[in-house]
Please model this.
Amino acid sequence: MLKINYDFKDPKLLELALTQSGVDSKHNNERLEFIGDRVLGLSVAVLLYEMFPSEQEGDLARRHATLVSTETLAMVAQDFGVDKLIRHGHMTAGRMQHMYADAMEAVLGAIFLDAGFDIVKDIIVEKWRSLAEAELTVPKDAKTALQELVQKSAAGALPVYEYLDVTGASHKPVFNVKVTALGKSAFGSGSSKKAASIAAAEELLKVLAI
Model:
């Protein structure tokens, strides 16, 4: 059962939002995900603008990146029960988090089409406000954190980022990046080179912490 306080006027929109492309290559949630991504991004941007009036653009951007990240979206999807309702084909464990995040965006896109921006924005603000309040300090960019760690361990050294192939649908490309530092490497993906490099830095930080 979907744990969102909203009843769809058109239940087929919700069904579509919960259908992964591995089940149906034509009628799936990719287009709704495209809309949901934009609706979420704008709603969270407005929320942060209002919550942190003294912060500059860079600080707001780092907060925003954390709140709309794959990890946050996957967590919210599980809170709302979206993960239990997705219709999907074969999926490796490493891709499950991305699938949850994509479906969560698709559900938000479906609500937008079903009820309009004000309704979906209220749903987003109600959930994401508590997530934003939990971050009392501005999150440090993973690339900055990795660079500081590397320079502390090997004076003057810097992480090396390698931009790989671009995958995903043409309307929503996925950039892939490899980062190497201190003899270790990790990979990351994202909707832009910047997002992918941050994701790769986050993964390498986890590796170096072991």
